[in-house]
Amino acid sequence: MDDDGLLYRVYERRLTKELEAFSLPQHLGVIVDGNRRWAKEAGETTEHGHRVGAAKILEFLSWCEDLEIPLITVWMLSTDNLRRPPEELVALYEIIADTIEQIIDAGYCVRLTGNAEALPQEVRAGIARAQEQTVPASRLTVNVAIGYGGREEIVDAVRELVREQAALGLDGEQIASAISVESITEHLYTRGQPDPDLIIRTSGEQRLSGFLLWQSVHSEYWFCETYWPGFRRVDLLRALRDFCRRERRFGA
Predict the structure, then answer these.
(1) CA angle, corner 74, sides to 121 and 203, nearest 5?
(2) Largest Cα–Cα distance in the chain?
Protein backbone atom coordinates (compact mmCIF):
# COMPACT_ATOMS: atom_id res chain seq x y z
CA MET A 1 0.00 0.00 0.00
CA ASP A 2 1.41 3.43 -0.92
CA ASP A 3 1.63 6.35 1.51
CA ASP A 4 -1.56 7.96 0.17
CA GLY A 5 -3.50 4.73 0.60
CA LEU A 6 -2.20 4.27 4.12
CA LEU A 7 -3.15 7.82 5.11
CA TYR A 8 -6.59 7.32 3.59
CA ARG A 9 -7.16 4.16 5.68
CA VAL A 10 -5.97 5.85 8.85
CA TYR A 11 -8.28 8.81 8.21
CA GLU A 12 -11.20 6.49 7.46
CA ARG A 13 -10.69 4.55 10.69
CA ARG A 14 -10.46 7.79 12.66
CA LEU A 15 -13.75 9.03 11.22
CA THR A 16 -15.46 5.69 11.92
CA LYS A 17 -14.26 5.77 15.51
CA GLU A 18 -15.45 9.36 15.93
CA LEU A 19 -18.96 8.44 14.78
CA GLU A 20 -19.34 5.81 17.50
CA ALA A 21 -20.26 8.55 19.97
CA PHE A 22 -23.22 9.77 17.89
CA SER A 23 -26.65 8.63 16.71
CA LEU A 24 -26.54 8.19 12.95
CA PRO A 25 -29.40 8.99 10.56
CA GLN A 26 -32.25 6.49 10.48
CA HIS A 27 -33.19 7.53 6.94
CA LEU A 28 -30.57 8.72 4.48
CA GLY A 29 -31.44 10.13 1.06
CA VAL A 30 -28.92 10.32 -1.76
CA ILE A 31 -29.09 12.10 -5.11
CA VAL A 32 -26.64 10.17 -7.28
CA ASP A 33 -25.56 12.97 -9.62
CA GLY A 34 -22.66 13.31 -12.03
CA ASN A 35 -22.50 9.99 -13.91
CA ARG A 36 -22.52 11.62 -17.34
CA ARG A 37 -19.96 14.29 -16.47
CA TRP A 38 -17.69 11.67 -14.89
CA ALA A 39 -17.88 9.60 -18.08
CA LYS A 40 -17.17 12.59 -20.32
CA GLU A 41 -14.08 13.60 -18.33
CA ALA A 42 -12.89 9.97 -18.31
CA GLY A 43 -13.34 9.70 -22.08
CA GLU A 44 -16.00 7.03 -21.66
CA THR A 45 -19.55 6.61 -22.96
CA THR A 46 -22.59 7.89 -21.06
CA GLU A 47 -23.77 4.29 -20.64
CA HIS A 48 -20.46 3.36 -19.03
CA GLY A 49 -20.84 6.26 -16.60
CA HIS A 50 -24.30 5.07 -15.60
CA ARG A 51 -23.05 1.50 -15.11
CA VAL A 52 -20.17 2.63 -12.90
CA GLY A 53 -22.63 4.79 -10.97
CA ALA A 54 -24.95 1.82 -10.50
CA ALA A 55 -22.09 -0.29 -9.16
CA LYS A 56 -21.31 2.53 -6.73
CA ILE A 57 -24.88 2.31 -5.38
CA LEU A 58 -24.28 -1.33 -4.33
CA GLU A 59 -21.02 -0.33 -2.68
CA PHE A 60 -22.69 2.62 -0.93
CA LEU A 61 -25.46 0.39 0.42
CA SER A 62 -22.89 -2.00 1.88
CA TRP A 63 -21.29 0.94 3.73
CA CYS A 64 -24.68 1.96 5.11
CA GLU A 65 -25.41 -1.61 6.21
CA ASP A 66 -22.07 -1.73 8.05
CA LEU A 67 -23.00 1.53 9.81
CA GLU A 68 -26.46 0.13 10.67
CA ILE A 69 -28.37 2.87 8.84
CA PRO A 70 -31.70 1.07 8.23
CA LEU A 71 -33.35 3.09 5.45
CA ILE A 72 -31.87 4.57 2.26
CA THR A 73 -33.64 6.39 -0.56
CA VAL A 74 -31.62 6.49 -3.80
CA TRP A 75 -32.78 8.76 -6.63
CA MET A 76 -31.87 6.96 -9.84
CA LEU A 77 -34.26 8.50 -12.38
CA SER A 78 -36.31 11.69 -12.15
CA THR A 79 -39.36 12.66 -14.17
CA ASP A 80 -37.13 15.26 -15.88
CA ASN A 81 -34.71 12.48 -16.86
CA LEU A 82 -37.53 10.86 -18.85
CA ARG A 83 -36.95 13.53 -21.52
CA ARG A 84 -33.44 12.30 -22.25
CA PRO A 85 -32.59 10.76 -25.67
CA PRO A 86 -34.35 7.40 -26.26
CA GLU A 87 -31.10 5.48 -26.65
CA GLU A 88 -29.86 6.74 -23.27
CA LEU A 89 -33.17 5.84 -21.62
CA VAL A 90 -33.13 2.31 -23.00
CA ALA A 91 -29.71 1.76 -21.45
CA LEU A 92 -30.81 3.41 -18.20
CA TYR A 93 -33.87 1.19 -17.86
CA GLU A 94 -31.71 -1.90 -18.29
CA ILE A 95 -29.17 -0.64 -15.76
CA ILE A 96 -31.90 0.22 -13.24
CA ALA A 97 -33.53 -3.21 -13.58
CA ASP A 98 -30.16 -4.94 -13.16
CA THR A 99 -29.36 -2.77 -10.13
CA ILE A 100 -32.66 -3.58 -8.44
CA GLU A 101 -32.00 -7.30 -8.92
CA GLN A 102 -28.50 -6.91 -7.44
CA ILE A 103 -29.86 -4.99 -4.45
CA ILE A 104 -32.36 -7.77 -3.80
CA ASP A 105 -29.66 -10.44 -4.29
CA ALA A 106 -27.61 -8.62 -1.64
CA GLY A 107 -30.43 -9.36 0.81
CA TYR A 108 -31.96 -5.90 1.03
CA CYS A 109 -35.65 -4.98 0.96
CA VAL A 110 -36.55 -2.87 -2.08
CA ARG A 111 -39.45 -0.44 -2.40
CA LEU A 112 -40.25 1.40 -5.60
CA THR A 113 -40.53 5.14 -4.93
CA GLY A 114 -42.01 6.95 -7.90
CA ASN A 115 -44.75 6.87 -10.47
CA ALA A 116 -44.55 3.48 -12.15
CA GLU A 117 -47.05 4.61 -14.77
CA ALA A 118 -44.39 6.99 -16.14
CA LEU A 119 -42.23 4.01 -17.11
CA PRO A 120 -42.61 1.71 -20.14
CA GLN A 121 -44.73 -1.37 -19.56
CA GLU A 122 -41.86 -3.83 -19.98
CA VAL A 123 -39.79 -1.90 -17.42
CA ARG A 124 -42.68 -1.91 -14.92
CA ALA A 125 -43.16 -5.65 -15.43
CA GLY A 126 -39.48 -6.39 -14.90
CA ILE A 127 -39.32 -4.31 -11.72
CA ALA A 128 -42.50 -5.95 -10.41
CA ARG A 129 -41.00 -9.41 -10.98
CA ALA A 130 -37.83 -8.40 -9.17
CA GLN A 131 -39.75 -6.94 -6.24
CA GLU A 132 -41.55 -10.23 -5.71
CA GLN A 133 -38.19 -11.61 -4.55
CA THR A 134 -37.47 -8.83 -2.04
CA VAL A 135 -36.65 -9.56 1.60
CA PRO A 136 -39.07 -7.65 3.90
CA ALA A 137 -37.19 -8.49 7.11
CA SER A 138 -33.85 -7.16 5.87
CA ARG A 139 -31.57 -4.98 8.01
CA LEU A 140 -31.64 -2.43 5.21
CA THR A 141 -34.60 -1.10 3.23
CA VAL A 142 -33.83 0.65 -0.04
CA ASN A 143 -36.29 3.02 -1.69
CA VAL A 144 -35.35 3.11 -5.36
CA ALA A 145 -36.69 6.40 -6.73
CA ILE A 146 -37.36 6.03 -10.47
CA GLY A 147 -39.81 8.08 -12.50
CA TYR A 148 -39.78 10.26 -9.39
CA GLY A 149 -40.60 13.95 -8.99
CA GLY A 150 -41.37 15.69 -5.71
CA ARG A 151 -44.23 17.79 -7.07
CA GLU A 152 -45.70 14.78 -8.84
CA GLU A 153 -45.57 12.77 -5.61
CA ILE A 154 -47.59 15.39 -3.74
CA VAL A 155 -50.14 15.62 -6.58
CA ASP A 156 -50.47 11.82 -6.64
CA ALA A 157 -50.95 11.75 -2.85
CA VAL A 158 -53.70 14.37 -2.92
CA ARG A 159 -55.45 12.70 -5.86
CA GLU A 160 -55.44 9.34 -4.07
CA LEU A 161 -56.75 10.93 -0.88
CA VAL A 162 -59.54 12.76 -2.72
CA ARG A 163 -60.57 9.62 -4.58
CA GLU A 164 -60.74 7.66 -1.32
CA GLN A 165 -62.91 10.31 0.29
CA ALA A 166 -65.15 10.59 -2.77
CA ALA A 167 -65.63 6.81 -2.75
CA LEU A 168 -67.05 7.20 0.75
CA GLY A 169 -69.73 9.49 -0.62
CA LEU A 170 -68.41 12.69 0.95
CA ASP A 171 -69.20 16.05 -0.63
CA GLY A 172 -66.65 18.68 -1.66
CA GLU A 173 -66.56 20.47 1.67
CA GLN A 174 -66.15 17.23 3.61
CA ILE A 175 -63.35 16.15 1.28
CA ALA A 176 -61.60 19.50 1.73
CA SER A 177 -61.84 19.11 5.51
CA ALA A 178 -60.23 15.66 5.25
CA ILE A 179 -57.11 17.08 3.58
CA SER A 180 -54.39 17.70 6.17
CA VAL A 181 -50.65 17.36 6.60
CA GLU A 182 -51.19 13.98 8.23
CA SER A 183 -53.59 12.63 5.60
CA ILE A 184 -51.34 13.68 2.71
CA THR A 185 -48.32 12.13 4.44
CA GLU A 186 -50.23 8.84 4.66
CA HIS A 187 -50.58 8.79 0.86
CA LEU A 188 -46.98 9.59 -0.15
CA TYR A 189 -44.75 7.02 -1.85
CA THR A 190 -42.83 6.76 1.45
CA ARG A 191 -45.92 6.23 3.61
CA GLY A 192 -45.17 4.52 6.88
CA GLN A 193 -41.51 5.52 6.82
CA PRO A 194 -39.67 8.23 8.79
CA ASP A 195 -38.66 11.41 6.98
CA PRO A 196 -35.01 11.60 5.86
CA ASP A 197 -32.60 12.91 8.47
CA LEU A 198 -29.86 13.64 5.95
CA ILE A 199 -29.80 14.11 2.18
CA ILE A 200 -26.53 13.86 0.24
CA ARG A 201 -26.04 15.20 -3.28
CA THR A 202 -22.91 14.65 -5.32
CA SER A 203 -21.37 16.49 -8.31
CA GLY A 204 -21.26 20.01 -6.84
CA GLU A 205 -24.90 20.91 -7.50
CA GLN A 206 -26.41 22.61 -4.44
CA ARG A 207 -30.13 22.08 -4.93
CA LEU A 208 -32.68 19.35 -4.20
CA SER A 209 -34.42 19.43 -7.60
CA GLY A 210 -37.63 18.32 -5.88
CA PHE A 211 -36.17 15.23 -4.19
CA LEU A 212 -38.43 14.16 -1.29
CA LEU A 213 -39.91 17.64 -1.43
CA TRP A 214 -42.56 17.02 1.24
CA GLN A 215 -40.49 14.76 3.47
CA SER A 216 -37.35 16.93 3.59
CA VAL A 217 -38.88 19.86 5.51
CA HIS A 218 -36.56 19.20 8.48
CA SER A 219 -33.79 17.30 6.71
CA GLU A 220 -30.14 18.27 6.84
CA TYR A 221 -28.28 18.55 3.53
CA TRP A 222 -24.70 17.73 2.54
CA PHE A 223 -23.31 18.61 -0.87
CA CYS A 224 -19.97 17.50 -2.26
CA GLU A 225 -18.04 18.24 -5.45
CA THR A 226 -17.28 14.60 -6.22
CA TYR A 227 -19.15 12.98 -9.10
CA TRP A 228 -21.17 9.98 -7.94
CA PRO A 229 -18.93 7.29 -9.54
CA GLY A 230 -15.99 8.73 -7.57
CA PHE A 231 -17.82 8.88 -4.22
CA ARG A 232 -15.82 7.11 -1.49
CA ARG A 233 -16.61 5.63 1.89
CA VAL A 234 -14.63 8.44 3.47
CA ASP A 235 -16.98 10.94 1.77
CA LEU A 236 -19.94 9.22 3.42
CA LEU A 237 -18.18 9.26 6.78
CA ARG A 238 -17.40 12.98 6.43
CA ALA A 239 -21.06 13.67 5.59
CA LEU A 240 -22.17 11.74 8.66
CA ARG A 241 -19.66 13.49 10.90
CA ASP A 242 -20.89 16.87 9.67
CA PHE A 243 -24.50 15.79 10.29
CA CYS A 244 -23.71 14.58 13.80
CA ARG A 245 -22.06 17.88 14.71
CA ARG A 246 -25.11 19.93 13.76
CA GLU A 247 -27.78 21.02 16.19
CA ARG A 248 -31.11 20.04 14.70
CA ARG A 249 -33.90 22.44 15.65
CA PHE A 250 -36.79 20.99 13.57
CA GLY A 251 -38.11 24.48 12.89
CA ALA A 252 -38.01 25.59 16.54
Answers:
(1) 115
(2) 72
Alpha-helical segments (H) within the chain: 3-19, 35-42, 46-66, 86-105, 121-131, 150-167, 172-178, 181-185, 233-245
3-state DSSP assignment of residue 191: coil
Radius of gyration of the chain measured on its C-alpha atoms: 19
Catalytic residue among 2, 3, 4, 33: 33
Q: Clarify whether 33 is annotated catalytic.
A: yes
Catalytic, 143? Answer no
147 burial level (CB within 10 Å; 0-12, 13-18, 19+): buried
Please give the domain boundaries of the chain with CATH numbers for all domains. 23-150+194-244 (3.40.1180.10)
pLDDT tens for the chain, 252 residues long, are 565 678 888 999 999 999 999 999 999 999 999 999 999 999 999 999 999 999 999 999 999 999 999 999 999 999 999 999 988 999 999 999 999 999 999 999 999 899 888 888 888 887 787 777 777 778 999 999 999 999 999 999 999 999 999 999 999 999 999 999 999 999 999 999 999 999 999 999 999 999 999 999 999 999 999 999 999 999 999 999 999 999 887 766
CA distance 126 to 2: 44
Q: Active-site residue among 3, 80, 81, 235? A: 81
